[in-house]
Every structure is written in C-alpha cells, then in structure tokens.
Amino acid sequence: MATADLGAVLPTLSTYWHELGQAAHAAEEAGLRYIFCNEQPGSDAMTGAQALIAGTSRAHIGTSVANIYLRHPYLMARSAAMLQALSKGRFILGLGTSHDAINRPKGLGSPHPIRDMDAYVGAVRSQLAREESTPIWLGALRQQMTQLAGGLADGVIFHLVPVGLLRKSVAVLRAAEANANRSGRVHVAAYARIAISSDLAHARARARNMLAFYLRFPAYQALFSAQGFAGDVEAWTRAGTASGPIAPEEAISDSLIDATCIVGSEGRCVERIQEYQAAGVEILLLAPVPEERASLSRLFTPAFRLARRLQQ
C-alpha cells in the first residue's frame, strides 16, 4: 500500500487572516508537502493562497476550493498565473461550484454545475500561456463531478466523502481517465476533517458541530443518505425544524462522524489515515475541526505533531 503525502487545509475565517502565512510556514516545517486554503463565506481563496505562498518556499500551495461562479474565467486565469509566478511553480488551482444556498443570494449559480465546470476549466486554460500552465484540481462529492475530473482535470479533492465510498469514487475516477486516454494523470486528494484528542467523546463533539453546518446543504444530505445515513439526515432535519428534545447537532450519530472524519487519539487517527490510503487517496489534506477561541497555531499543533510522527 502506497503511503499518502500529507498536507493541510487552512481556514480563511477573518479571525485567521493575519495568521495564514505563519501557519503555512509551520506546516511546511512539519514536513507537509501540500498546503491549501479553503474559501469560507466572506473570504477569498486566491488571496489566501497568496498569504500561504509568502510563508513558504517548498510546499505545493493550492485552493480548496475557489468558487467558479464568483469569478470570470479570465480573472481566475490571470490570478492563477500570478500565483504560479509568485510561488515559482508551486501553485495548484482547486475549483468548485459551491452550493445554491451560498450562490443564489449573490445572484449566482446555475442548475447545471457539471456543464458549467467543464466549460469553465476550458476557458481558464485558454487564457493561460504555456509557461503559465497551472494544475487544475476539482472539488468532487459525487459521481458526475468525479467523472469530469477524470476526463479533464489534473487532480480531484474529495471532501467529507465517507471513507467506505472513497474506494468506489477512485475507481470511477480511474475509469474516466482510461476512457479519456489519460490514465494515471489525476492526483487523488481527500480534504479530511480531523479532531485529535485522547477524549473520543470530546473529539466527536467537535466533529458533530462541524457536520451540522454541512448538513444544511442538499448535496451533503444526498451524499450521506446514499451511504446509509438517511436516518441521521432525517433526525437532523426534524431537530432543526421543531422544538424537539435535542439540538440539531445532537442528532448526528457517532457512525456518521467516524465514516466522514478522523477523530480520537493519535493512534486511532493513524489507523484512520491508513484506511484513506488503502482506499486510494494519494494526498491527505488534514483540516482540524474548528475549536472555539483557538488560534490557528493552537488548532493545527496536534495535526502537525501527528504528521511528524507519521514521517518517522
């Protein structure tokens, strides 16, 4: 079994903006080869990536993921070209379509995200000169986007995809590669939410709060339901629409948490990471579950410690 390269996804909440460069430097010093930033509401992944580039000199830097509906393809291409130059060839452009709940209030989005992504990638590449060539990775949850990534992208990023489904998703990706006569060209990354603690209940509680946020989106509801967690989705929905005996996050089972996140002691997390590797993940991007009032340094310290352990 091949050993996955380790990386991190740094959050772009405004409270962390001034820490991004320093945190990226710490990640690089911990031996992480891939350092990405996400695009949370109110932030900009491309500017976040610039901060990561400024704090590093060796690691690959990327976005996970930049919303295509927020930027004209020309602007995305020119931003990517500048970041590729500033990083001296280390930049990876991760693209996604986000969710209707985020796009529609801005007057954006479309009922055809797969078609839109296909056209968008072509438009971005057409605006990049050969010397500006930038790897493009696609954020994917389900089969259609995974197939598109296999046919045209340089990488795919799976987020909160249950580890039991990942092996099938990788097989779908590889089949799409083969159909497009480009076998072995797509990197497989997983954006993995992690909560390291000797107190398993505490680690799960942190993950439970995070999953409650994502369950607002139909795409994740469908993903989890299809993998046998329809009961969690139904219980969460009931708790959120009625003054029931439990809060919405309390409706999320330990089983769903364990299927989608890496939680528990260092030893338990190592075992989970091995499961991701066995499923075909080549690059594991660790993203600590948010913790109230924690600085970026404090939030990532356990993950960096684990990364060092895995490299010994």
Give the % helix: 40-55%
What are the segments in which pLDDT stays under 50 over at least 5 consecutive residues?
A: none
Structural class: alpha/beta
Secondary structure tally, helices:
12
Number of strands: 10
CATH fold assignment = TIM Barrel
Secondary-structure arrangement, i.e. CATH architecture:
Alpha-Beta Barrel
Walk me through the structure:
The chain is 49% helix and 17% strand. The protein has 312 residues and is an alpha/beta fold. The chain has one domain: Luciferase-like domain (TIM Barrel). It has an eight-stranded parallel beta barrel with strand order 1-2-3-5-6-7-8-10, surrounded by seven helices. Helix 3 links the parallel strand 4 and strand 5. Helix 1 crosses helix 2 and helix 3 crosses helix 5. The model has no long low-confidence stretch (mean pLDDT 95).
What tags apply to this protein structure?
312 residues, alpha/beta, TIM Barrel, 49% helix, globular
